[in-house]
Design goal:
heterodimer; A: alpha/beta; 6-stranded parallel beta sheet; 13 helices; 13 strands; globular; disordered C terminus; B: alpha/beta; 4-stranded parallel beta sheet; 50% helix
């Protein structure tokens, strides 16, 4: 089975018209395409950075607020400038993009403009026909682009059921100072927002730090995936952050078959922090078998139900840090004390924090950041699990 | 329970009350006779007008009923135009041409303006009968302030009252300055570029902002409090401080619908609501003629909601704003009359009665859940025909679509209306098509006899009643779901409205593609040989965009020191619980939109988009 096509979609800066792109994304996903959705109101620069890091085949831009000739051309120009002109640019804007505009845009390197009345089927077909063939192996210019391409190769080799050759044992020996932090927890607990707020603080505290994020979203059964974390992770769209969105491609448990190898590569690529986020997980999940993860954070929603439910959550035994997010909710105090008692049973020195990640400058997130930036020995870490 | 739960109860209770009174009118002879007498009295007072053909017609048409129960159901359940629960209209008379002869009885028929402000009585002081404002209000904004100003003068040339409706460009809507890197192509596209108080002065140059015949509408929400402050600052520059209480107009400022549908939000929701409430508190106290929020379903509809979702989310947002204002200690009878609405009118069958039902629910909710008096019960609404219903294929059909939507809008008793230009699928409308769109309204209201002779001309058909009942029940069901999610704020955080709208939008597209929703010339009677027409597009030339950038840079240089002081003061106030609008007013004199926005974001954070 061939690897799914990965594309990136976005709406330009100063444009909030996301109705069309939402519909198109759904249609792409249903037809086996993995869509990294960057969201609306996005600068050309953010689109280009994301396209390169995600190593997509093409960028689809949906524009309804004018200025499209300049905007599309700017994306093409910046891709070219960074040596990524094999990433194609296509898009549309209902009736706002005229045939005259299209001619100018194509002259400036835009691959394809869809006009009003184009069926969704035609668009899907176009993507399959034009961006589905294997790429020529071309040398990538920058280390970032080389890293992005290697990640693609790892993912694709799993999709082709050819596991890559192991490059030595999976240990952290060669990693140096890189700290790998794993985030997991049920869907809707606010993992993505929490990580993004953490990234904001990590970037602010050290003007030189570089961060990698490996984010997971579920694949639709037998189809593509909507990889939408970038749309809400506003602080992580930064030149010092390398973010990669992965679909689970049929594997249960919160991660993708290729995660382990991708993580190893990232951990050896000179970042100060590598953050890995699972999809929303169930009670029995224990996604981080890997010895590569230094610290694990379980993010909980105060609304987990009766206290008995806590006994069934396996990660409560394994996580180094447990965060009760949304702690502005009524049930949060009860939740925190119930979880505290549950952690006491383990007697492993696990840490418990309460946060309101959606709140600007939340002191709870500050504390989490403090905890995760302490030297590993000083943190609750007591040897590697399993 | 949030107030929305109380609204649901109030409507259910009121409907029960009406049916009880109907039974009572039928069983209690004395009460029944009272209702019949009242009915006859109302009928006797209705003046008679004359059509140009000589035909005599009553100014108000009523159903042909004479049985006490039916009369009771009509008077209490629907209400006469201008009477609770306002199903048939917010005012007694709307769109009617003046009577040729003085009314029969002075005071019996006090005429009210379409916009609700002009309480005019033709027979007082022996003055010439005054005429209410035209309901036409066309949305426009393009390129730089002086270009839009020219367009405003062109549009208003033949109107007695100057009712301007302002569209802003993308950077302005997102609070970004024109000199920010990466947005040059967006300056003046889709609306006018406004960065500073100086742009605001240019934008409304030549109009008397304090005149009772002038009103300005500004369609902007994310940075609305900042833009409002700039408008006030510009007015003061031109007319002095005394102008403030006379300012008349509307600013959209509807944050809930931005988060639910339109995506032009720049601060986190709670911070946006705080800035908004600060502004509303200021205008309620200092600017009694201003509408500080236009609770908008239009963008919800355009984002793809069903008509019922549009009405339900808009109304519930309105009740949430009312709840916020009341929590500030403001009197519902002070702020209630300053809440106004903005709805989308498309071609789906619900639009036969959507606004009528909305008016009724608002009135009952405000009266019975908020304790509002008559003026605060009135749902005053601006309608715009649906942009989404217009298509590029054989675009001249859009004239017919818009005409049908106009008809529906006026059948619903809209207080003002914008008719879209047929060329809208392609571009900012050109003058030729704007003119046709405006003429469409004039043909309906002035030329045709449909609306100018008789109130209730098209109200209350059996079909319309059926739609009313179905729509009302569906809206209440949506309210219940929102209430279950913790009220409007809770539902927003659960992204309930967004996901409902997206689902409806997806279904709509699928219906177009599978042909179950016929769109003429697109999926039915399609003409594949058609060439797309080439328009002269209203694009902003590069030189103009550069001019805007240069002006802004000059402004910033000139005000650098004072600007920084004003921003520091503003930031300090925002950190407290005080109303920050006065500090915002000071900042608007010497700071650009982007400067203020950036400083506020440092304090309260940025909006995190919901997908």
């Amino acid at each position: 089975m061939a690897a799914p096509i990965r594309i990136l979609t976005a709406v330009p800066i100063c444009d909030g018209h996301d109705s069309a792109i939402n519909t198109i994304n759904l249609e792409f996903i249903r037809h086996g395409i993995e869509v990294v959705y960057l969201g609306y109101h996005r600068y050309a620069q953010d689109i280009v950075r994301a396209a390169i890091q995600e190593d997509v085949r093409a960028v689809g831009i949906s524009s309804y607020n004018g200025g499209h000739v300049e905007f599309f051309a700017e994306v093409v120009k910046q891709l070219k400038k960074r040596g990524a002109d094999d990433i194609k640019v296509f898009g549309g804007g209902g009736g706002t993009i005229t045939h005259d505009d299209q001619r100018v845009m194509q002259r400036r390197g835009v691959d394809k403009i869809f006009f009003a009345g184009t069926s969704l089927t035609e668009m899907v077909q176009f993507v399959h026909d034009h961006y589905g063939k294997p790429r020529k192996r071309t040398a990538r210019k920058t280390p970032e682009m080389q890293l992005a391409r290697k990640l693609t190769e790892i993912e694709d080799s799993y999709a082709n059921r050819k596991r890559p050759k192991k490059s030595g044992a999976r240990t952290k020996k060669s990693i140096g100072e890189t700290r790998v932090i794993g985030f997991t927890g049920p869907g809707g607990a606010g993992k993505t927002t929490l990580i993004d707020e953490l990234v904001l603080r990590l970037l602010q505290r050290d003007a030189k730090s570089r961060i990698a994020i490996l984010s997971h979203d579920p694949s639709v059964v037998g189809a593509g995936a909507l990889l939408g974390d970038r749309a809400t992770m506003i602080n992580s769209q930064d030149d010092r952050v390398f973010m990669r969105s992965m679909a689970t491609r049929g594997q249960a448990g919160g991660l993708s078959p290729a995660t382990e190898d991708c993580l190893q590569l990232l951990a050896q690529s000179g970042f100060d922090y590598v953050i890995i986020e699972t999809v929303g997980t169930g009670q029995e999940a224990m996604p981080f078998h890997s010895k590569l993860v230094d610290q694990t954070v379980l993010v909980m929603n105060p609304d987990y139900g009766a206290r008995l439910q806590l006994q069934k959550i396996v990660m409560l035994d394994l996580a180094d840090v447990v965060v009760v997010n949304k702690s502005d909710q009524d049930r949060a105090r009860t939740a925190a004390s119930e979880i505290e008692r549950r952690l006491e049973q383990n007697n492993r020195g696990q840490r418990l924090l309460s946060t309101v990640a959606k709140r600007h400058r939340d002191p709870g997130v500050d504390k989490l950041c403090d905890l995760l930036t302490q030297p590993v020995a000083a943190a609750s870490k007591k040897g590697r699990k399993k | 329970m949030s107030k929305l739960g109380r609204v649901v109860e109030a409507v259910e209770k009121y409907n029960g009350f009406v049916e009880d009174e109907v039974k009572r009118a039928r069983s209690d002879k004395k009460f029944g006779q009272e209702m019949v007498d009242r009915w006859n009295e109302i009928k006797a007072k209705i003046p008679v007008g004359t059509a140009p053909t000589g035909l005599k017609l009553p100014r108000l048409a009523l159903p042909e009923i004479d049985e006490a129960g039916d009369i009771t159901r009509y008077l209490l359940g629907d209400g006469l135009p201008g009477e609770f629960p306002f199903l048939n209209g917010a005012y007694r008379e709307m769109y009617l041409e003046p009577l040729q002869q003085p009314p029969i009885e002075t005071g019996a028929y006090e005429k009210s303006g379409h916009g609700g402000k002009a309480k005019l009585n033709g027979s007082k002081n022996g003055a010439k009968p005054q005429v209410a404002e035209e309901p036409t209000r066309l949305f426009s904004g393009l390129m730089l302030a002086e270009d839009t100003n020219e367009r405003f003068h062109f549009l208003g040339a033949h109107q007695r009252s100057k009712r301007l409706s302002t569209a802003f460009d993308g950077p302005t809507l997102y609070g970004i300055d024109s000199d920010a890197p990466g947005i040059l192509g967006k300056i003046g596209e889709g609306g006018v570029a406004v960065d500073t108080v100086e742009d605001m002065v240019r934008l409304y140059d030549g109009f008397d902002l304090g005149s009772p015949d002038f009103s300005a509408s500004m369609t902007i929400s994310g940075p609305a409090p900042i833009i409002m402050a700039m408008y006030i600052a510009a007015a003061k520059r031109r007319f002095g401080d005394g102008i403030v209480p006379k300012l008349r107009g509307t600013i959209q400022a509807d944050i809930f619908k931005e988060v639910q549908a339109q995506n032009e939000t720049i601060f986190p929701v709670e911070a946006s609501l705080r800035f908004l409430t600060d502004m509303m508190e200021f205008t309620t106290r200092e600017m009694p003629r201003w509408y500080p929020v236009s609770i908008s379903g239009y963008h919800i509809g355009e984002a793809g909601s069903t008509p019922v979702q549009q009405a339900a989310y808009t109304l519930s947002n309105g009740f949430a704003y009312a709840e916020m204002m009341a929590a500030r200690g403001l009197d519902v009878d002070d702020f209630g009359p300053r809440l106004s609405f903005f709805l989308d009118c498309g071609l789906d069958v619900e639009y036969i009665a959507l606004t009528r039902v909305s008016r009724r629910i608002w009135a009952i909710g405000m009266r019975d859940a908020f304790g509002a008096g008559p003026k605060a019960q009135m749902f005053k609404v601006h309608t715009q025909t649906s942009g989404r219903s217009l298509v590029a294929a054989e675009f001249k059909n859009n004239l017919t679509r818009t005409a049908a939507e106009l008809m529906l809008s006026y059948m619903n008793g809209t207080n003002s209306c914008h008719s879209n230009s047929a060329d809208e699928p392609f571009t900012t409308p050109s003058e030729e098509w704007i003119r046709l769109a405006a003429h469409g309204q004039a043909i309906l209201l002035d030329e045709s006899g449909i609306f100018k002779h008789t109130m209730n001309m098209l109200s209350g058909s059996p079909g319309m009643k059926a739609v009313e009942r179905a729509v009302e029940a569906a809206i209440l069901e949506e309210f219940r779901e929102i209430e279950r999610l913790g009220g409007v704020m809770g539902a927003v955080e659960n992204r309930y409205q967004r996901s409902q709208i997206q689902t409806a939008a997806h279904r709509y597209e699928q219906q177009i593609y599978n042909g179950t929703r016929p769109i003429i010339a697109l999926n039915k009677y399609r003409n594949d040989s058609e060439e797309m027409p080439e328009f002269e597009l209203a694009r902003t030339p590069r030189a103009k965009q550069q001019l805007q950038v240069d002006r802004l840079k000059k402004f910033k240089a000139k005000n650098a020191r004072k600007g920084e002081q004003a921003l520091a003061k503003l930031a300090a106030v925002v950190e407290t619980d005080e109303n920050c609008f006065p500090a915002l007013l000071e900042a608007a004199e010497v700071c650009s939109l982007g400067q203020i926005n950036n400083r506020l974001q440092e304090v309260v954070g940025r909006f995190r988009p919901m997908v």
